[in-house]
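lol ok so funny story. i was supposed to be doing the assay writeup but got distracted and ended up predicting the structure for this chain instead. priorities right. anyway since i did it might as well share w the group, maybe its usefull for someone
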Amino acid sequence: MPKGQAEAAQALGIPYWKAVWHIILPQAIQEVIPPLTNTAIVMVKNTSLVLIVGVFDMLSAARGAASDPAWPAPSKEAYLFVAAIYFVICYGITLYSRYLEAGINTRNRS
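and the output, tada:
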């Protein structure tokens, strides 16, 4: 945050902790929400690259189903299903991020 914010609070005689809680922290949170949201989405998307507790993730299950001769040619459907699940999760995180940002913007105006 700009140094002037803390200096202005000090010039107005606001105690340090009140300035941090009511002036600096809300602005810092507002600046941090978008990068945190991006990090959460990247983490969700990267689950297809790792094994979780020894169990293959959804993308590996789709690959396994595509190679199963008893299940004829489901590869497109399986991959579309996995993509839909990832989209729903990432879109939900994005909507929640927008909700948080709107709440912070509303509180800052009043």
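The chain has one domain: 33-109. The CA atoms of residues 66 and 75 lie 5 Å apart.
back to the writeup now i swear
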